[in-house]
Amino acid sequence: MKRIVILGAGTGGTIMANKLRKALEPEEWEITIVDKGKKHFYQPGFLFIPFGIYTKYDVIKPKANFIPPGVNFIIDKIERIEPGKNRVHLADGQVLNYDFLIVSTGVQTDPSETPGLQGELWNKEVFQFYTLEGAVNLANFFKTWKGGDLILNIADMPIKCPVAPLEFVMLADWFFREKGIRQNVNIKLVTPLPAAFTKPLSAKVLGEILDKKNIEVVTDFYIERVDNENRKIISYDEKEVPFDCLVSVPIHKGADFLAKSGGLADDMNFVKVDKHTLQSVVYPNVFALGDATNLPTSKAGSVVHFSAEILFENILCAIEDRSLTGEFDGHANCYIESGDGKGILIDFNYEVEPLPGKFPLPGLGPFGLLRETKVNHYGKLIFRWMYWHIILKGKEMPIEALMSMAGKEVVNP
Fold first, then answer.
1. Among residues 264, 296, 211, which one has the least CA distance to residue 105?
2. Residue 412: CB partners within 8 Å, gap ≥ 6?
3. Sign of CA dihedral 12, 18, 19, 20
4. Beta strand 29-35 with 342-348: parallel, antiparallel or unpaired?
5. DSSP letter string over 5-60?
6. Over the chain, what is the mean pLDDT?
7. Taking 90 as the threshold, does the pLDDT of residue 411 lie above it?
8. Domain encompassing residue 375
9. Which site from 50, 145, 197, 282 is most exposed, i.e. has the minimal number of CB atoms within 10 Å?
10. What integer is the mean pLDDT of 190-219?
11. Are 225 and 166 found together in one domain?
12. Last residue of some domain: 252, 271, 291?
């Protein structure tokens, strides 16, 4: 009996458990998936909770609902990986041996990395929405808040869903207009980036939309500390931004156990992989998926889904001792909620930045690329149903894993 161990029962791990169990004979292959918790969170839904669009009950389901029969599901913390000996140590003392290992333990926020962030104002006037608890606390705060300086600060990159901060400030603009107090709310996006987004064309388009919504973008701001007493954030070069409500996107890191796992990960605990094959650059029988990796692309759900197709192909190649044929191109697409029942869609990869056009069908769409449309908003909402019923279960989607140029309008620099 040969063994595959999957670490993490989030999006990537669950997809791989479903795909591999269907493809491999149970008599020959034992598949085990390990996770520290029982609840599966639809993380894109956290964004909607502060604005009353979703509640916490809309984003939680039992993980066991999505683990297929014939897969061992262990709920325990992971202590460390011993990749040189092909084994995983769990917190309860159990040791799991493997022939192939898939690391898909995602990413976690670490507010403690920024001095003062978890000070006396934490969860009172300083919040984050990248956790369920933080999103719920912020929702409760917004119910009675009368206005002031609302600052969304990104501590550093990379972060989960890089467009989420943009969505947050645009939804805040809509939310406070609906409440009739937008004139009392000064919204700023404070970012370490030189623009609203990382890609030049989309940064220009998104920056113009933010400007129309009267949302100020403060660029090149690397936060050093939060001054709770004077209610302001201070950068390393001593720039200051005052706040009445601070919404932080804290430092992101890979899982803690990866720091003591035989050199698999970099200094931020992200697994070092070949960006095309998703194979560890150190140990050939170890692969990684999604936010847990150091891939030079967005840490977004779409990347997990698209790259899972490639990883599945390459795991089968490795099992059969063949050269790895799957080549991931960094494909990502993201619906960007912009308020007022509208949204923007971007589609890109390692080499091609987001371009205008129609998606997925040339000339027909129905979704508009780099355009603010109502159809894009509905696409964002429909995605939650697709996530629970199709994507997690490893079923085929009508969108190819590799990015297509069909429907895209090439823009000359």
1. 264
2. none
3. positive
4. unpaired
5. EEE--SHHHHHHHHHHHHHS-TTTEEEEEEES-SEEE-GGGGGGGGGTSS-GGGSE
6. 96
7. no
8. 332-391
9. 282
10. 93
11. yes
12. 252
